[in-house]
Structures are given as C-alpha cells and as structure tokens.
Design brief:
The chain has 346 residues and is mainly α. 74% of the residues lie in helices and 0% in strands. The relative contact order is 0.18.
C-alpha cells in the first residue's frame, strides 16, 4: 500500500508523523525550570546519543561515506539544526510563546525563497497560496500573545525560521550520484547538529544534574520523542522541497495548541479555532487538488509518474540483485572445484 501512494503524499505523511512527535516539545520547554544552558546540554546529549546509535546501526562501517555523500549539507544542516534549537528555547524564555510561533511560522516562506534563489527550486503557485494561507492561520492562532515580551526575544525568535529553512532547503537540494528519486539521507548528520548544540551549552556551564522532575522530562524528550521527530522530519526532505517540509511543520502550532487545551485545560481563544480551520482546509485542499490533477493526467493518457518511478526503482533493484548473484557464482567457481579438476586426480 505504501508504494501505491503518490511521492509527495509519502513526504507529507513522514513529515507529519515527525511533527506529531515534536508537538509536546513546547509543553516540556515551558514546564522545565532549569536554566537554558543546562536544558540544552541534556537535550543535545540525549538526542545525540540516540541519533548516533541509529546512524551507526543503519550504516555501520559505511557511515563516514554516508556523511560525505551529504556534500555541503554535512556542515550547513548541523549548524542550522543547532541554531534553530537554541533560538527556539532562548526566545521562549525571553518573549511570549505567540511571538515565537509567529516567527517560526515564517519558515516555509523563507525556505521557498532560499530554494528559489540558491538552488533553482521552483514552487507552484498553488504551493505559495497554501503557504500563505497556513502562515496566516498559524499567526491567528498565536495572536493572543502578540506584542508581549522583549524586543531581544523577537530578534532571537527570528533566527529560528531562518535556521530551520536553511536546514530543510539545503537537505532537500542534495542529490546522490545515482540520481535516485529520493534525496540524500541527511539523517546521518543530525548527530553533528547535536554536537554543535552541545558545545555552547558546555561552554556556558550547562553540564549540571537538574532536579529529578526536570531530568525526567528531559529524558522523555531526549530519548523518546525528539529522536523520532527529527529523524522523520529530516527524512521528509528526501521527498519534499524544504518549503513544503516547513509547511507541514506548521501543524505543530495547531497540535501544540490542542495539547495545551487537553493537558493544561487552557481553552484557546476563538481566533485559534479560526486559524486552525484555515490551516487544515488549506493543506487538505492542496493535497486533494494534487491527487485530482494526477488522476486526470493519467486518465487523459499521460504516463503515471508514480508508476514510472516505481518501475525504475524495480529495475535498479533487479540489476543490483543480479550483480550480487554473479559475484556469488564467481566466488563458488573459484573456491569449490570438482575433484576431477584437482592436480593429480583420476
């Protein structure tokens, strides 16, 4: 069933699953009372350990080659990943959550501009319209806290969408030498981002044992929720342009608001429901229009792009399997010789 889904829809589902896991993050940031340096130290340490273990198990001795295959993303993405995490947490402590969310919601717009100016990526008019509607909806959801907090917090919050856009756009722009339909796997460089996140925390004296209640929250996020969230979101860049990954991440505003309502009992204002409805309607409408357009082209006699891609992948896999079988046959011929061929045999 998975292979029958359109390629873009796969990217939306993968990224959306990551956003679901990431959504409780805002609750944990607000509930944790340790200083920023200590918070970031444990966040980076635990997250880095899990992601390093996953990368090592997946690639083994080929891990250095997988990192080199990422090209410029091997250093740009970790820096963007670390900067976005620091900016989000620091801004959340300096200004109101609404200001942080509004700034963070600019990520798909920034990603679209970066992709267009530096990587030649072109988004359809429909995508720009959906991005505009979703940003407007997310801004309405956070409107209740706009204007509160410090100017410094607003400036720091502005760093977050730029850093997120750099990470997702650079990652989605990388393509392997095999010209696979998927982009390069940049999840292998997330541990480097954790290292870039960890070093400033160490320099600021964050290597401290927090209170048990805060440590429990940090362990849950660092070992369970965040590794899965960032792994899936980074995987989404293999299927979607950075702007569309940022578009799906806007769902965090909606889901986070619902979580606060359910967990804390804080009823959202009416504008939050209007904004959430705009986000859901825009994303659902865009997805349905894509499916309708693809089916209409196939019905008109155009080749199904998904079918062509699947057929190409099957041919690549068959070629690789045949090469492996030939190698095994050659090995057997060399090392398993009939007794009659031995020197001195009858």
């Amino acid at each position: 069933m998975w292979r029958s889904l359109p390629w873009r829809l796969r990217g939306y589902l993968i990224t959306g699953a990551g956003v679901l896991l990431l959504s409780p993050d805002a609750l944990f940031v607000k509930a944790t009372e340790v200083d920023v340096a200590t918070f970031m130290f444990w966040r980076a340490l635990l997250l880095g350990l899990v992601l390093s273990l996953v990368a090592g198990l997946r690639y083994g001795r080929k891990l250095p080659a997988a990192i080199r295959a990422c090209g410029p993303a091997a250093w740009l993405c970790p820096l963007g990943f670390a900067a976005s995490a620091w900016a989000f947490v620091v801004a959340a402590r300096l200004t109101a959550a609404g200001n942080v969310l509004v700034m963070l919601n600019l990520a798909p717009l920034v990603a679209g501009l970066i992709g267009m100016l530096f990587f030649g990526q072109r988004l359809r008019l429909q995508t720009w319209i959906v991005i505009g509607l979703c940003v407007s909806g997310a801004s309405l959801m956070a409107a209740g806290e706009l204007g509160q907090g410090s100017a410094l917090g607003l400036f720091v919050a502005l760093i977050a969408p730029v850093a997120v856009a750099i990470n997702t756009t650079v990652a989605s722009a990388q393509r392997g030498q095999s010209h696979s339909r998927r982009g390069v796997d940049t999840t292998v460089i997330l541990p480097l981002g954790c290292l870039a996140m960890l070093l400033p925390a160490l320099a600021l004296g964050g290597a401290q044992i927090p209170p048990m209640e805060d440590l429990t929250r940090l362990v849950w996020m660092g070992l369970v929720f965040l590794p899965g969230a960032y792994f899936l979101i980074q995987t989404g860049t293999r299927y979607l342009p950075g702007a569309e990954v940022g578009l799906v991440m806007l769902l965090e505003t909606l889901i986070g608001t619902l979580l606060v309502w359910w967990w804390v009992g804080e009823v959202p204002p009416p504008l939050a429901f209007v904004g959430g409805g705009i986000i859901l309607s825009a994303m659902l409408g865009g997805s349905l229009r894509d499916l309708h357009r693809q089916r209409r082209k196939v019905a008109a006699g155009a080749p199904d792009p998904q079918g062509l891609l699947d057929e190409a992948l099957e041919k690549q896999q068959a070629t690789a399997d045949a090469r492996i079988r030939r190698t095994r046959d050659i090995t057997r011929v060399r090392f398993i010789r009939p007794s009659g061929d031995r020197p001195g045999g009858a």
